[in-house]
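So, can you check this record?

>
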Amino acid sequence: MASTDNTDDISKLTELSDSDFEIADGQPDIQGWDVRDSEGNKLGEVDELLFNPASRKVRYIIVHMENNDIGLEDGRVLMPIGVAELDEHKDNVIIPDITKAQILSLPLYEYGRDIDSDTEAQIRNVFVAPDANVMVGTDFYDHDHFNQTKFYGKRREPGADTVSKSYLDTPPEGNNETV
């Protein structure tokens, strides 16, 4: 089933720092946070976010693997937003149940590089079971791997009664847009 707000044109994925968008008020800015596995091993840190400006949805976390605890070479990889979780108590991003072999299977990311459908399929195949129902075309981003509500919904701001369902808000008037 296609989603009405699902803009799946991968050519429109943009690095947050190369845009006029900003993190929405009340949402954590995860850039610079450590990325860890379920065992607490540091895999790297959040270097950047890759998002679709038309849908205002974050699709990937760009993880810089410098100074990691598991012997990975320095480089950057894309992690789909929905495979990650926010640590409820510390400023960490957790990638549950990920293995070193999975990380080594991810293509290295270079800034400014266009992400084509083959690259996205390669990333997706690292996280999907071989017999899983893989969505293509307009349904590609409907998969839980791209569910930013699942990612941001686990952590509440101190004193907050609800969790915002969107990391990317409607831009305010002026030059900067809020994401």
